[in-house]
Amino acid sequence: MMKQRQLWTSRGVLALIALLVSACGSSPDVGLAGPGLQPQATTGVVNRLSAFRYVHTLAGVPATETPSTLKSLYGGQVLVYDPVARTAVLANNSSAKGKYDAAVESNTRVYKVAEQGLAAWSSGYNAWGSGYNAWGSGYNAWGSGTTSSATTFTENIVNWDAIGLSSAQALVPEQGSGIKVAVIDTGIDLNHPGLQGRLDLANGKDYVQGDLDPSEVNGNTDGTYSQGYGHGTAVAGIIAQVAPKATILALRVLDPFGEGDVATVADAINYAVLKGAKVINLSLGSNADVKALNTAVSAAIGKGIVVVAAAGNSGDTNVLFPAAPADYLTGSQGQGSVGVGSVTGTFLKSSFSTYGHHLELTAPGERIRTLFPGGNVVDATGTSFAAPVVSGILALALSTGLNITESSGAKALMGNLNSTARPGSDPAYPNGLGFGTVSAFRLVDVYR
């Protein structure tokens, strides 16, 4: 069985048309068909957790219980088991509460890139990307010449200079080496030339189609692109520029239209931890505060994993979940996770970015040149693309030799992330941009 997708190589810049969440509107016209992305063989079998109707969050689970005994009690599948916190998350088809239940929630499709704004993973009023080009010659070397191996697109250098990225990469020649970043998203173009040698191909997983091939899939068959197509590849392309030697683990939890259910996202977080991820990037969000997802994030933090979430693109104070509880000062998970909003290259709040007391940090998120499936590049806009900037910077810091295995270490790293940020300077939002804008150089300088 081969995965279905469109294979295109573009000629020139093609304008991407805004897609409304209701799925009306048009996708971009495509260029001439070319070799582009090659289909991947489907291998392995993965349980499709979307088939389960309910998720159960357990608390006070005694040490005598194991995943096997919990499965016997509840049926279904154990998604998260944390014996230290004495918590667990299970998915099954029963709404009845068991002896350890703290909450029973419907396994709804609440997590989506479409929640990031009024248009497909966009600023809320424009398409997420302003156009795409063929990959061409690939990345360009830094213009300043201060790094020997890090490369990027020249279009991004203004944003990278604003956060001191070139200096940070020069200070940390490891550039993320030895650090695995999980991208829990719509999948990744595994054959993109900009990602070769940077992917954990052995442990990728596709929860949507139930196999071990986390490639992007275009859900449209009419020559247009489905709403979520390319989102995960764009996220991965940003991480690859910020931390060029980090390893990216692709976990596909969102379908071609950018939607995913609670059980799938929770299990992917737990799986990322088991497969050695030190940073988890969640460029997705929901208006619903789901206890099962929060428990999965907390379990990851408890093992010293840092979690980065996009804050949302509604332009108001309604920071999405799980970014909202990531607030360092007031959020229930703020000591090991971070919610990220977007600013311009001059540190002004992006018009689409959420803000307010639940926003912890900001990063550049407008017209970031990054990767698009089929060997293409794209200019991406949204908090979905500010989040991986922070994920990449955390990978840089971790590659200095930090060995974090528990929540106290994650708390210390996140504390330094916030304390080294450039304080917010947008006069229109004096108290609405959290600790300010991430500073790559100032953070890694703490460890070098």
TrEMBL record:
Signal peptide: 1-33
Domain Peptidase S8/S53: residue ranges: 176-436
Gene Ontology molecular-function annotations: serine-type endopeptidase activity
Organism of origin: Deinococcus budaensis
Cited SUPFAM superfamilies: Subtilisin-like (SSF52743)
Keywords associated with the record: Hydrolase, Protease, Serine protease, Signal
Pfam families: Peptidase_S8
Annotated Gene3D superfamilies: Peptidase S8/S53 domain
Residues the record marks as active site: D185, H231, S384
Family recorded in the similarity comment: Belongs to the peptidase S8 family.
Gene Ontology biological process: proteolysis
Entry keyword Signal: yes
Protein name (Swiss-Prot/TrEMBL): Subtilisin family serine protease
